[in-house]
Amino acid sequence: MIVAPLDGTPETVVGGDECDRRTLPASTFKIPHALIALDTGVVSDSTTMKWDGTKQDFPTWERDHTLDSAIKSSVVWFFQRAARAIGRDRELAHLRAFNYGSQTFSGPVDLFWLNGELTISPREQIAFLKRMYAYQLPIPRRHVDTVIAAMTMPPGKLSNASGVHEFALASPPPVVRAKTGNGTVKGERASWVIGEVESDGRRLVFASRVRSSTRALETTAGADRALAVLRAEVGSKK
After folding, report:
1. Where are the beta strands (DSSP E) in 95-147?
2. Which one of 46, 73, 82, 193 is CB 3.0 to 4.6 Å from 37, fit for a cystine?
3. Which residue among 27, 74, 121, 199 is the active-site one?
4. pTM
């Protein structure tokens, strides 16, 4: 895990070389993917995509969704439909422009962030978040603000496809903007949470990932790992 203050003070790194190992981004890719969808005009902040009535993995996916709700409930079908409209060439161009992880894929345009073709490390996630929050991506500022707003979690909570979970960092709760991600490739499960914490005027970005080939991981495994480090980081600077 890496915690990086946006004021340029030293990072907190837990895990050593693990922070440089790439895995699939899973649904953490919904952050850049939302930016791509907005930039290409495939969706807007007022778009509502209609659920087609097919059975989904989670009850929260079985309804119509906006971009905001699709990020908060991590709705895969919403972003798969967007990916097909964006198309391969525009997806690849944005991956390169964002300098995002391995920056490439060759298979289906609606699976590359889920099947292990696109990969990224915690350190690369941090670099991406820093650029996003500094408005250094080649994306209009209004689109970045739309995605940041959609990442904003309820106080002391964290939402994903499986529901709303406890994520208590301090009292009173700081502002948390985050995205989880979970996926399995070749028998290895990865569980992520990435995002930003804003507390007492201080802002930091973080990327936490747990991976395992030998045990099942809850959808909050990455977030559970992040809690202790973030609590210490926020509390120590009070």
Report:
1. none
2. 82
3. 27
4. 0.95
